[in-house]
Amino acid sequence: MDLHNNMEFELSGNFIPNISNSDKLKIIEISSDSVVIQMNNSKRRGIFPLDSFQYWIKRKSLIFIEQEKKTS
């Protein structure tokens, strides 16, 4: 999956790093080796190595929330 800023993910119950008891997170910044995230129940940001973040996606611990495109 190609990751980019502002992508949102729903957290499943097996997402171990969920210390803020959030149900969603958003990618704030992404680089070639890390992902900065913001959880919806926290004012703090977290950082994951890119391969670790993709591991959580593959395990279906992070489920991408597809945003409907608005048409004008």
Alpha carbon gap, first and last residue: 28 Å
Mean pLDDT value: 90
Helix content: 10-25%
What is the strand arrangement across the widest sheet?
4-3-2-1-5
Please provide the count of β strands: 5
Q: Which sequence of SSEs, written as H and E, runs from N to C?
A: EEEEHE
Structural class of the helix and strand makeup? mainly beta
Tell me the β content.
Answer: 25-35%
Oligomer: single chain
Shape by Cα distribution: globular
Low-confidence stretches: none
User: Major sheet: size, sense and barrel closure?
Assistant: 5 strands, antiparallel
Radius of gyration: 12 Å
Number of helices: 1
Give an overview in words.
There is one protein chain. With 72 residues, this protein is mainly beta. Helix content is 12%, strand content 35%. It is built from one helix and five strands; from the N terminus they run E-E-E-E-H-E. A five-stranded antiparallel β-sheet has the order 4-3-2-1-5, covered by helices on one side. The termini are far apart. The mean pLDDT is 90.
